[in-house]
Amino acid sequence: MILICDDDLTVQTSLTLVLKRAGYEVATASNPQETVDFVRHTCPQLILMDMNYSNTTTGEEGLELLAKVRIFCPAVPVILITAWGSINLAVQGIRAGAFDFITKPWNNLALLKTIQTAIQLQESEEKETDGKETERTDRFEKIIGKSALLQQILNTISRISRTNAPVLITGESGTGKELIAEAIHENSNRQGKPFVKVNLGGISQSLFESEMFGHKQGAFTDARHDRTGRFELADKGTIFLDEIGELDMVCQVKLLRVLQDQTFEPLGESRPRQVDTRIICATNKNLPEMVAQGKFREDLFYRINLITIQMPALRERLEDIPLLVDHFTQKQAKQNNLSPIEISQEAYGYLKKLPYHGNIRELKNLVERTILISGKKIITDADFKKQYIEVPSSQPVSGNTILSLERVEKEMIQKAVELYGCNHSKIATALGLTRQTLYRRLEKYDIKLPE
Protein backbone atom coordinates (compact mmCIF):
# COMPACT_ATOMS: atom_id res chain seq x y z
CA MET A 1 0.00 0.00 0.00
CA ILE A 2 1.17 3.55 -0.81
CA LEU A 3 0.05 6.47 1.37
CA ILE A 4 -0.46 9.85 -0.36
CA CYS A 5 -0.22 12.84 2.00
CA ASP A 6 -1.36 16.03 0.26
CA ASP A 7 -3.99 18.67 0.97
CA ASP A 8 -4.65 19.27 -2.73
CA LEU A 9 -7.54 17.06 -3.86
CA THR A 10 -6.41 17.35 -7.50
CA VAL A 11 -2.96 16.01 -6.62
CA GLN A 12 -4.49 13.20 -4.55
CA THR A 13 -6.79 12.19 -7.41
CA SER A 14 -4.06 12.35 -10.05
CA LEU A 15 -1.55 10.32 -8.02
CA THR A 16 -4.20 7.79 -7.01
CA LEU A 17 -5.13 7.21 -10.65
CA VAL A 18 -1.49 6.74 -11.72
CA LEU A 19 -0.66 4.37 -8.85
CA LYS A 20 -3.80 2.24 -9.17
CA ARG A 21 -3.17 1.81 -12.88
CA ALA A 22 0.32 0.57 -11.96
CA GLY A 23 -1.21 -2.02 -9.62
CA TYR A 24 -0.64 -0.36 -6.24
CA GLU A 25 -3.16 -0.15 -3.42
CA VAL A 26 -3.56 3.47 -2.32
CA ALA A 27 -4.60 5.35 0.82
CA THR A 28 -4.81 9.15 1.20
CA ALA A 29 -4.42 11.74 3.96
CA SER A 30 -5.28 15.44 3.56
CA ASN A 31 -3.33 16.95 6.46
CA PRO A 32 -0.53 16.12 8.92
CA GLN A 33 -2.91 14.91 11.64
CA GLU A 34 -4.62 12.41 9.31
CA THR A 35 -1.19 11.19 8.24
CA VAL A 36 0.02 10.64 11.81
CA ASP A 37 -3.24 8.91 12.75
CA PHE A 38 -2.78 6.54 9.80
CA VAL A 39 0.85 5.57 10.51
CA ARG A 40 0.08 5.00 14.19
CA HIS A 41 -1.66 1.74 13.25
CA THR A 42 -0.50 0.99 9.67
CA CYS A 43 2.93 1.14 8.01
CA PRO A 44 2.53 1.36 4.22
CA GLN A 45 5.12 0.20 1.68
CA LEU A 46 5.89 3.81 0.79
CA ILE A 47 4.70 7.35 1.54
CA LEU A 48 4.32 10.21 -0.95
CA MET A 49 4.37 13.40 1.14
CA ASP A 50 3.77 17.04 0.26
CA MET A 51 6.01 19.61 1.99
CA ASN A 52 3.36 22.32 2.61
CA TYR A 53 -0.13 22.12 4.15
CA SER A 54 -1.08 25.79 4.65
CA ASN A 55 -0.57 29.12 2.93
CA THR A 56 3.12 29.17 3.88
CA THR A 57 5.78 27.68 1.61
CA THR A 58 8.60 27.26 4.12
CA GLY A 59 8.30 23.48 4.17
CA GLU A 60 8.51 23.40 7.96
CA GLU A 61 5.20 21.50 8.19
CA GLY A 62 6.54 18.82 5.85
CA LEU A 63 9.81 18.46 7.75
CA GLU A 64 7.95 18.22 11.05
CA LEU A 65 5.56 15.62 9.60
CA LEU A 66 8.48 13.63 8.18
CA ALA A 67 10.06 13.46 11.65
CA LYS A 68 6.78 12.20 13.19
CA VAL A 69 6.23 9.60 10.45
CA ARG A 70 9.74 8.21 10.95
CA ILE A 71 8.98 7.65 14.64
CA PHE A 72 6.14 5.24 13.81
CA CYS A 73 7.47 3.82 10.51
CA PRO A 74 11.27 4.30 10.51
CA ALA A 75 11.92 1.78 7.71
CA VAL A 76 9.26 3.03 5.27
CA PRO A 77 10.71 5.07 2.39
CA VAL A 78 9.28 8.57 2.05
CA ILE A 79 9.28 10.44 -1.28
CA LEU A 80 8.73 14.17 -0.93
CA ILE A 81 6.58 16.24 -3.32
CA THR A 82 7.74 19.80 -3.95
CA ALA A 83 7.80 22.52 -6.60
CA TRP A 84 10.85 22.83 -8.87
CA GLY A 85 11.70 26.18 -7.29
CA SER A 86 11.71 24.63 -3.80
CA ILE A 87 14.28 21.90 -4.33
CA ASN A 88 16.27 23.22 -1.36
CA LEU A 89 13.37 22.10 0.84
CA ALA A 90 13.61 18.61 -0.64
CA VAL A 91 17.35 18.54 0.07
CA GLN A 92 16.60 19.38 3.71
CA GLY A 93 14.05 16.55 3.71
CA ILE A 94 16.59 14.04 2.40
CA ARG A 95 19.00 15.09 5.14
CA ALA A 96 16.18 14.42 7.61
CA GLY A 97 15.67 10.88 6.30
CA ALA A 98 13.52 11.04 3.16
CA PHE A 99 14.34 8.59 0.37
CA ASP A 100 13.99 10.95 -2.60
CA PHE A 101 11.88 13.80 -3.99
CA ILE A 102 9.76 14.56 -7.04
CA THR A 103 8.85 18.00 -8.36
CA LYS A 104 5.51 19.35 -9.58
CA PRO A 105 4.50 18.84 -12.30
CA TRP A 106 5.90 15.32 -12.15
CA ASN A 107 6.56 12.83 -14.92
CA ASN A 108 4.50 9.68 -14.35
CA LEU A 109 7.14 7.28 -15.68
CA ALA A 110 9.90 8.88 -13.59
CA LEU A 111 7.64 8.81 -10.53
CA LEU A 112 6.81 5.11 -10.94
CA LYS A 113 10.48 4.26 -11.44
CA THR A 114 11.41 6.11 -8.23
CA ILE A 115 8.67 4.30 -6.31
CA GLN A 116 9.73 0.93 -7.71
CA THR A 117 13.36 1.58 -6.81
CA ALA A 118 12.49 2.59 -3.24
CA ILE A 119 10.36 -0.50 -2.66
CA GLN A 120 12.92 -2.84 -4.26
CA LEU A 121 15.75 -1.49 -2.11
CA GLN A 122 13.65 -1.77 1.04
CA GLU A 123 12.66 -5.36 0.24
CA SER A 124 16.29 -6.23 -0.57
CA GLU A 125 17.41 -4.87 2.80
CA GLU A 126 14.68 -6.77 4.64
CA LYS A 127 15.68 -10.04 2.94
CA GLU A 128 19.31 -9.52 3.87
CA THR A 129 18.38 -8.69 7.46
CA ASP A 130 16.24 -11.82 7.69
CA GLY A 131 19.02 -13.99 6.22
CA LYS A 132 16.87 -15.00 3.26
CA GLU A 133 19.22 -13.97 0.45
CA THR A 134 19.49 -16.63 -2.21
CA GLU A 135 22.81 -17.95 -3.47
CA ARG A 136 24.60 -15.45 -5.68
CA THR A 137 24.57 -16.13 -9.42
CA ASP A 138 26.04 -12.81 -10.46
CA ARG A 139 28.32 -12.21 -13.44
CA PHE A 140 31.64 -10.69 -12.33
CA GLU A 141 34.03 -12.29 -14.83
CA LYS A 142 35.92 -9.06 -15.53
CA ILE A 143 36.49 -8.17 -11.86
CA ILE A 144 39.61 -9.85 -10.50
CA GLY A 145 40.23 -10.29 -6.77
CA LYS A 146 39.12 -12.03 -3.58
CA SER A 147 39.91 -9.42 -0.93
CA ALA A 148 37.30 -8.63 1.71
CA LEU A 149 36.96 -5.04 0.48
CA LEU A 150 36.24 -6.19 -3.08
CA GLN A 151 33.80 -8.88 -1.95
CA GLN A 152 31.91 -6.27 0.03
CA ILE A 153 31.53 -4.22 -3.14
CA LEU A 154 30.33 -7.24 -5.12
CA ASN A 155 27.77 -7.95 -2.40
CA THR A 156 26.51 -4.39 -2.75
CA ILE A 157 26.22 -4.80 -6.52
CA SER A 158 24.24 -8.00 -5.96
CA ARG A 159 21.72 -6.14 -3.80
CA ILE A 160 21.21 -3.06 -5.96
CA SER A 161 21.85 -4.12 -9.56
CA ARG A 162 18.26 -5.21 -10.30
CA THR A 163 16.82 -1.93 -9.09
CA ASN A 164 16.79 1.34 -11.03
CA ALA A 165 18.61 3.20 -8.27
CA PRO A 166 21.18 5.77 -9.46
CA VAL A 167 24.70 4.82 -8.36
CA LEU A 168 27.73 7.01 -7.66
CA ILE A 169 31.10 5.21 -7.83
CA THR A 170 33.93 7.06 -6.12
CA GLY A 171 37.62 6.33 -5.75
CA GLU A 172 41.07 7.21 -7.02
CA SER A 173 41.95 7.04 -10.71
CA GLY A 174 42.70 3.54 -11.96
CA THR A 175 40.72 1.64 -9.32
CA GLY A 176 38.26 0.07 -11.80
CA LYS A 177 35.19 2.30 -11.51
CA GLU A 178 34.15 1.63 -15.10
CA LEU A 179 34.31 -2.16 -14.56
CA ILE A 180 32.02 -1.79 -11.55
CA ALA A 181 29.56 0.24 -13.65
CA GLU A 182 29.59 -2.48 -16.33
CA ALA A 183 29.05 -5.16 -13.67
CA ILE A 184 25.99 -3.31 -12.32
CA HIS A 185 24.58 -3.12 -15.86
CA GLU A 186 25.35 -6.77 -16.70
CA ASN A 187 23.66 -7.98 -13.51
CA SER A 188 20.59 -5.78 -13.95
CA ASN A 189 17.33 -6.31 -15.79
CA ARG A 190 18.80 -4.04 -18.48
CA GLN A 191 21.48 -6.58 -19.39
CA GLY A 192 21.62 -6.89 -23.17
CA LYS A 193 20.43 -3.30 -23.62
CA PRO A 194 22.78 -0.39 -24.43
CA PHE A 195 25.56 0.53 -21.99
CA VAL A 196 26.63 4.03 -23.04
CA LYS A 197 29.85 5.51 -21.62
CA VAL A 198 30.33 9.28 -21.48
CA ASN A 199 33.53 11.01 -20.29
CA LEU A 200 32.16 14.32 -19.07
CA GLY A 201 35.67 15.66 -18.56
CA GLY A 202 36.14 15.62 -22.32
CA ILE A 203 32.95 17.51 -23.27
CA SER A 204 33.05 21.31 -23.43
CA GLN A 205 30.12 23.43 -22.22
CA SER A 206 29.33 24.53 -25.78
CA LEU A 207 28.99 20.92 -26.99
CA PHE A 208 27.27 19.48 -23.90
CA GLU A 209 23.65 19.74 -25.05
CA SER A 210 24.37 18.45 -28.55
CA GLU A 211 26.46 15.56 -27.23
CA MET A 212 24.07 14.51 -24.48
CA PHE A 213 20.65 15.33 -25.97
CA GLY A 214 21.34 15.45 -29.72
CA HIS A 215 20.31 18.07 -32.26
CA LYS A 216 18.18 18.55 -35.37
CA GLN A 217 19.57 19.52 -38.74
CA GLY A 218 19.94 23.31 -38.90
CA ALA A 219 19.79 23.80 -35.10
CA PHE A 220 23.07 25.74 -35.36
CA THR A 221 25.59 26.68 -38.05
CA ASP A 222 27.43 23.35 -38.37
CA ALA A 223 24.40 21.11 -37.73
CA ARG A 224 24.23 19.59 -41.23
CA HIS A 225 22.57 16.36 -40.07
CA ASP A 226 20.38 15.13 -37.22
CA ARG A 227 22.40 13.79 -34.31
CA THR A 228 21.24 11.27 -31.71
CA GLY A 229 22.32 12.23 -28.17
CA ARG A 230 23.87 9.90 -25.60
CA PHE A 231 20.72 9.74 -23.46
CA GLU A 232 18.62 8.59 -26.40
CA LEU A 233 21.28 6.00 -27.32
CA ALA A 234 21.03 4.66 -23.76
CA ASP A 235 17.21 4.33 -23.82
CA LYS A 236 16.10 1.12 -22.02
CA GLY A 237 19.72 0.65 -20.94
CA THR A 238 22.32 2.34 -18.73
CA ILE A 239 24.30 5.55 -19.15
CA PHE A 240 27.67 5.80 -17.38
CA LEU A 241 28.67 9.40 -16.67
CA ASP A 242 32.39 9.28 -15.86
CA GLU A 243 34.26 12.20 -14.27
CA ILE A 244 31.03 13.92 -13.25
CA GLY A 245 33.03 16.11 -10.87
CA GLU A 246 34.45 17.91 -13.92
CA LEU A 247 31.03 19.18 -15.03
CA ASP A 248 30.60 22.97 -14.80
CA MET A 249 27.63 24.53 -13.01
CA VAL A 250 25.71 25.45 -16.18
CA CYS A 251 25.83 21.87 -17.48
CA GLN A 252 24.94 20.55 -14.02
CA VAL A 253 21.56 22.33 -14.22
CA LYS A 254 20.86 20.84 -17.65
CA LEU A 255 21.79 17.35 -16.43
CA LEU A 256 19.69 17.69 -13.29
CA ARG A 257 16.58 18.38 -15.34
CA VAL A 258 16.83 15.20 -17.40
CA LEU A 259 17.60 13.12 -14.29
CA GLN A 260 14.56 14.62 -12.58
CA ASP A 261 11.99 14.08 -15.33
CA GLN A 262 13.62 11.46 -17.58
CA THR A 263 12.82 13.80 -20.48
CA PHE A 264 15.01 15.93 -22.75
CA GLU A 265 14.74 18.15 -25.81
CA PRO A 266 17.25 17.86 -28.68
CA LEU A 267 18.61 21.19 -29.85
CA GLY A 268 16.27 22.62 -32.47
CA GLU A 269 13.25 20.64 -31.27
CA SER A 270 10.60 21.90 -28.85
CA ARG A 271 8.85 18.59 -28.17
CA PRO A 272 10.21 16.74 -25.09
CA ARG A 273 11.32 13.15 -25.58
CA GLN A 274 10.90 10.45 -22.93
CA VAL A 275 13.85 8.25 -22.03
CA ASP A 276 14.12 5.20 -19.76
CA THR A 277 17.73 5.13 -18.64
CA ARG A 278 19.54 4.07 -15.48
CA ILE A 279 22.16 6.56 -14.30
CA ILE A 280 25.59 5.48 -13.02
CA CYS A 281 28.16 8.20 -12.28
CA ALA A 282 31.81 8.07 -11.29
CA THR A 283 34.35 10.54 -9.97
CA ASN A 284 37.72 10.73 -8.26
CA LYS A 285 36.76 14.10 -6.76
CA ASN A 286 35.39 14.73 -3.27
CA LEU A 287 31.85 15.79 -4.22
CA PRO A 288 30.64 16.61 -0.66
CA GLU A 289 33.61 18.98 -0.37
CA MET A 290 32.78 20.50 -3.76
CA VAL A 291 29.17 20.98 -2.62
CA ALA A 292 30.40 22.83 0.47
CA GLN A 293 32.61 25.03 -1.75
CA GLY A 294 29.71 25.81 -4.11
CA LYS A 295 31.35 24.01 -7.04
CA PHE A 296 28.78 21.19 -7.30
CA ARG A 297 25.01 21.49 -6.94
CA GLU A 298 23.71 19.88 -3.78
CA ASP A 299 20.42 18.85 -5.42
CA LEU A 300 22.32 17.12 -8.23
CA PHE A 301 24.55 15.40 -5.69
CA TYR A 302 21.54 13.90 -3.92
CA ARG A 303 20.00 12.92 -7.26
CA ILE A 304 23.01 10.86 -8.40
CA ASN A 305 24.18 9.24 -5.17
CA LEU A 306 21.22 7.27 -3.90
CA ILE A 307 23.73 4.40 -3.76
CA THR A 308 27.45 5.16 -3.27
CA ILE A 309 30.19 2.60 -3.94
CA GLN A 310 33.65 3.58 -2.70
CA MET A 311 36.39 1.79 -4.64
CA PRO A 312 39.45 0.92 -2.53
CA ALA A 313 42.94 1.84 -3.69
CA LEU A 314 45.13 -1.08 -4.80
CA ARG A 315 47.41 -0.52 -1.78
CA GLU A 316 44.38 -1.39 0.40
CA ARG A 317 43.87 -4.78 -1.27
CA LEU A 318 47.42 -6.12 -1.64
CA GLU A 319 46.23 -9.74 -1.50
CA ASP A 320 44.64 -9.23 -4.93
CA ILE A 321 47.92 -8.29 -6.64
CA PRO A 322 49.01 -11.88 -7.53
CA LEU A 323 45.59 -12.60 -9.07
CA LEU A 324 45.70 -9.38 -11.07
CA VAL A 325 49.28 -10.02 -12.24
CA ASP A 326 48.36 -13.55 -13.38
CA HIS A 327 45.35 -12.19 -15.26
CA PHE A 328 47.35 -9.47 -17.04
CA THR A 329 50.15 -11.95 -17.83
CA GLN A 330 47.86 -14.54 -19.42
CA LYS A 331 46.00 -11.86 -21.37
CA GLN A 332 49.24 -10.38 -22.73
CA ALA A 333 50.60 -13.79 -23.73
CA LYS A 334 47.36 -14.61 -25.56
CA GLN A 335 47.17 -11.27 -27.38
CA ASN A 336 50.77 -11.49 -28.64
CA ASN A 337 50.97 -15.27 -29.21
CA LEU A 338 53.69 -15.66 -26.56
CA SER A 339 54.73 -18.85 -24.80
CA PRO A 340 53.40 -19.30 -21.23
CA ILE A 341 55.05 -16.79 -18.89
CA GLU A 342 55.89 -17.41 -15.24
CA ILE A 343 56.24 -14.77 -12.51
CA SER A 344 58.71 -15.55 -9.72
CA GLN A 345 57.76 -15.40 -6.04
CA GLU A 346 60.37 -12.66 -5.49
CA ALA A 347 58.63 -10.65 -8.22
CA TYR A 348 55.26 -10.97 -6.44
CA GLY A 349 56.92 -9.81 -3.21
CA TYR A 350 58.41 -6.79 -4.95
CA LEU A 351 55.12 -5.85 -6.62
CA LYS A 352 53.31 -5.89 -3.27
CA LYS A 353 55.69 -3.22 -1.91
CA LEU A 354 55.01 -0.58 -4.56
CA PRO A 355 52.80 2.44 -3.66
CA TYR A 356 50.60 2.28 -6.81
CA HIS A 357 49.48 5.88 -7.02
CA GLY A 358 47.97 4.87 -10.40
CA ASN A 359 46.32 1.79 -8.85
CA ILE A 360 45.30 -1.16 -11.06
CA ARG A 361 45.96 0.76 -14.27
CA GLU A 362 49.57 1.34 -13.16
CA LEU A 363 50.05 -2.34 -12.26
CA LYS A 364 48.64 -3.43 -15.62
CA ASN A 365 50.98 -1.14 -17.54
CA LEU A 366 54.00 -2.29 -15.52
CA VAL A 367 53.26 -6.00 -16.09
CA GLU A 368 52.61 -5.59 -19.83
CA ARG A 369 55.65 -3.36 -20.37
CA THR A 370 57.95 -5.76 -18.50
CA ILE A 371 56.72 -8.82 -20.41
CA LEU A 372 57.13 -7.18 -23.82
CA ILE A 373 60.52 -5.55 -23.18
CA SER A 374 62.20 -8.39 -21.25
CA GLY A 375 61.08 -11.13 -23.66
CA LYS A 376 61.63 -13.71 -20.90
CA LYS A 377 59.56 -16.76 -20.01
CA ILE A 378 60.31 -16.26 -16.29
CA ILE A 379 59.90 -12.70 -15.00
CA THR A 380 61.84 -11.80 -11.83
CA ASP A 381 61.80 -8.86 -9.45
CA ALA A 382 64.88 -7.47 -11.23
CA ASP A 383 62.90 -7.30 -14.49
CA PHE A 384 60.12 -5.32 -12.84
CA LYS A 385 62.61 -2.98 -11.13
CA LYS A 386 64.10 -2.05 -14.52
CA GLN A 387 60.70 -1.10 -15.90
CA TYR A 388 59.15 0.53 -12.84
CA ILE A 389 58.45 4.25 -13.25
CA GLU A 390 57.31 5.90 -10.04
CA VAL A 391 54.30 8.17 -10.53
CA PRO A 392 54.14 11.14 -8.11
CA SER A 393 51.17 10.96 -5.78
CA SER A 394 48.59 13.73 -5.58
CA GLN A 395 47.37 12.28 -2.28
CA PRO A 396 49.32 11.41 0.89
CA VAL A 397 49.71 7.69 1.52
CA SER A 398 50.03 6.34 5.04
CA GLY A 399 52.82 3.89 5.66
CA ASN A 400 50.67 1.93 8.10
CA THR A 401 47.94 0.32 5.97
CA ILE A 402 45.81 -0.96 8.88
CA LEU A 403 45.64 2.43 10.59
CA SER A 404 45.00 4.10 7.23
CA LEU A 405 42.07 1.81 6.48
CA GLU A 406 40.49 2.41 9.89
CA ARG A 407 40.91 6.14 9.53
CA VAL A 408 39.39 6.10 6.05
CA GLU A 409 36.48 3.93 7.25
CA LYS A 410 35.74 6.23 10.17
CA GLU A 411 35.91 9.35 7.98
CA MET A 412 33.57 7.80 5.37
CA ILE A 413 31.02 6.90 8.06
CA GLN A 414 31.22 10.41 9.51
CA LYS A 415 30.68 11.94 6.05
CA ALA A 416 27.68 9.66 5.46
CA VAL A 417 26.20 10.69 8.82
CA GLU A 418 26.69 14.36 7.90
CA LEU A 419 24.90 13.80 4.58
CA TYR A 420 22.02 11.58 5.70
CA GLY A 421 21.54 12.54 9.34
CA CYS A 422 19.61 9.91 11.30
CA ASN A 423 18.60 7.83 8.25
CA HIS A 424 20.18 4.46 9.13
CA SER A 425 19.01 2.83 5.89
CA LYS A 426 20.47 5.53 3.67
CA ILE A 427 23.78 5.61 5.59
CA ALA A 428 24.13 1.82 5.42
CA THR A 429 23.23 1.66 1.71
CA ALA A 430 25.59 4.50 0.80
CA LEU A 431 28.46 2.72 2.58
CA GLY A 432 27.57 -0.71 1.19
CA LEU A 433 26.88 -2.10 4.69
CA THR A 434 24.02 -3.94 6.33
CA ARG A 435 22.23 -2.07 9.12
CA GLN A 436 23.68 -4.53 11.65
CA THR A 437 27.22 -3.92 10.38
CA LEU A 438 26.62 -0.17 10.47
CA TYR A 439 25.51 -0.38 14.12
CA ARG A 440 28.75 -2.24 14.98
CA ARG A 441 30.87 0.35 13.15
CA LEU A 442 29.09 3.25 14.88
CA GLU A 443 29.77 1.61 18.24
CA LYS A 444 33.39 0.82 17.32
CA TYR A 445 34.20 4.42 16.38
CA ASP A 446 31.85 5.98 18.98
CA ILE A 447 29.96 7.90 16.29
CA LYS A 448 26.65 9.38 17.46
CA LEU A 449 23.79 10.09 15.04
CA PRO A 450 22.01 13.46 15.30
CA GLU A 451 18.85 13.51 17.39
UniProtKB/TrEMBL annotation:
Residues 1-119 form the Response regulatory domain. Residues 143-372 form the Sigma-54 factor interaction domain. The keyword Lyase does not apply. This is Two-component system NtrC family response regulator. The keyword Oxidoreductase does not apply. Transmembrane segments: none annotated. PROSITE patterns: RESPONSE_REGULATORY, SIGMA54_INTERACT_1, SIGMA54_INTERACT_2, SIGMA54_INTERACT_4. It holds the Pfam family AAA_lid_14. The modification 4-aspartylphosphate is found at D50. SUPFAM superfamilies: CheY-like, Homeodomain-like, P-loop containing nucleoside triphosphate hydrolases. Keywords: ATP-binding, Nucleotide-binding, Phosphoprotein, Transcription, Transcription regulation.
